[in-house]
Structure formats: structure tokens, C-alpha cells
Amino acid sequence: MKSFPASGLSRSLLLACVLGITPAFSAPPEDGICPIHHIKMESVSLRVVYGMPSQLEFEEMREQKSRFPNGRDYVLAGCVVKPAKSIPGYLCRDCVKARKEWIASRQTQSNSKP
Ligand SMILES: [Zn+2]
């Protein structure tokens, strides 16, 4: 891997951006059953979003694997823009609900900071 002549902060952001690509395209389960909630998921087309994920989205990526892996109606495809605008995927209604609750709790926490 090349080293970037950037400052430490922007270099780590860039690295985080590149690393953010990987989990977005993990293959959905073929039977369409949510591995967390064990219910049938809805087959949908997911928007592909390019660019740097927000801090909240990074935190969400850490949480989603164990709590709401199929709760987002878009995928983060990293910084390198490709032609794909949408990909087939699944949405689980319980994951969507769990994700909304998680985001709401995160926003409550950040609002309560001084
Ligand atoms: Zn689920």
C-alpha cells in the first residue's frame, strides 16, 4: 500500500473511508431470512451511496452486525464512485425498527451533551 503524504488525521479518515467499503457489500442470506430476527425479509433494491460516511454511520456499522444487519435501505459504497446506483438486497422490518430506535437513542445522547 502506498503511503499518503497527508497529515495524520486526513490519512486516517481516508483509510477509514476505504475500509468502510467492505461490510456494505456482504452478501445477503439467500433464503431471505434475517439472521438476527429469523423473519422473512422484504426483497428490495438498495440505494448505493458514495462518499465519506458520517461519524454516526461508522458507529452504526459497528452496531448493525449484531443488532440490525438488514435495517438500512441503502449501502455505503465508499469514496470511489462507480456506475451502480442500486443493488438488490433485503430489508427486515424488525431491523429497520431496531435501527430507528438506535439512531433515536444516539441523537438523544448527543443532544444532551453541553
Ligand atoms: Zn432483522
Summarize the structure.
With 114 residues, the protein is α+β, with helices and mostly antiparallel strands. It is built from 4 helices and 3 strands; from the N terminus they run ααβαββα.
Structure description:
The protein has 114 residues and is an alpha+beta fold. The chain has one domain (8-111). It is 42% helix and 15% strand. It contains four helices and three strands. It has helices at 8-19, 21-24, 55-67, 93-111, and strands at residues 42-49, 74-76, 86-91. A three-stranded mixed β-sheet has the order 2-1-3. The radius of gyration is 16 Å and the shape is flat. The relative contact order is 0.20. Bound molecules: zinc ion. Zinc ion binds next to helix 4. Residues 34, 36-37, 70, 92, 94-95 line the site of zinc ion.
Beta-sheet strand percentage? 5-15%
* Class by alpha and beta content: alpha+beta
* Uncertain spans: 20-25
What does the overall shape look like? Answer: flat
What share of residues is helical? Answer: 40-55%
Give the names of the bound compounds. zinc ion
For the secondary structure, the number of strands is 3
What is the topology, as strand order, of the major beta sheet? 2-1-3
Domain module tally: 1
Order of helices and strands: HHEHEEH
Q: Helical stretch count?
A: 4
Biggest sheet character? 3 strands, mixed
Span between termini = 41 Å
- Rounded to the nearest angstrom, the radius of gyration is 16 Å
